[in-house]
Write a structure and sequence with these properties.
Layout (H helix, E strand, L loop, with lengths): L3 H17 L4 H68 L3 E3 L4 E3 L32 H9 L20
Antiparallel strand pairs: 1-2
Helix pairs in contact: 1-2
């Protein structure tokens, strides 16, 4: 079966021949009907492929989220077991265990800051986050352009899309 773009090109060519050509109109009409039928069938098949790809994308996104959730649970479990190991090594007074695969050692962490109440911290110890950079308000620009206002550097563009719905 020909490609969709070939069928579309053939349809346009047949319509041009019908308008400007000197072929038998009935022959052109019959051929055009055949091309239109094939074009519709091909378009339907292409639409089915896009719907399938959309469904696969959703499934992949969901699987990715599930895998990230599982990874977080595994990391939490590993940290819990590490704490269990630390607690028992400290209780037993053991600071180092060696085996052929790795070395287990109890190490002192660098001091960590614990904030008991943020409202008592002096201003010089507070950071001020950078404000977000200005960005165009597309809704406001669209409304202004629709109202006939001139917005330098902006224009409205209408485009087409393919909608596949049930």
């Amino acid at each position: 079966m020909p490609h969709l773009y070939e069928l579309a090109r053939d349809k346009v060519e047949l319509e041009r021949l019908m308008e400007y050509g000197d072929l038998d109109p009935q022959t052109i009409i019959d051929t055009l009907e055949g091309v239109e039928g094939a074009l519709e069938e091909k378009a339907i098949n292409v639409a089915k492929v896009t719907r399938n790809l959309d469904a696969v994308a959703v499934a992949v996104r969901d699987a990715g989220k599930a895998m990230l959730d599982r990874a977080a649970r595994l990391e939490k479990r590993a940290e819990s077991i590490r704490q269990y190991l630390l607690m028992n090594m400290e209780f037993a007074g053991i600071t180092k265990i060696e085996c052929p695969q790795f070395v287990i050692a109890v190490k002192r962490n660098p001091p960590a800051v614990v904030i008991d109440d943020e409202k008592f911290i002096p201003a010089e110890y507070m950071t001020q986050p950078d404000p977000p950079a200005p960005r165009p308000d597309k809704a406001k620009i669209r409304d202004a352009l629709k109202a006939g206002e001139d917005v330098p550097g902006c224009r409205l563009v209408a485009s087409d899309r393919v909608e596949i719905r049930e």
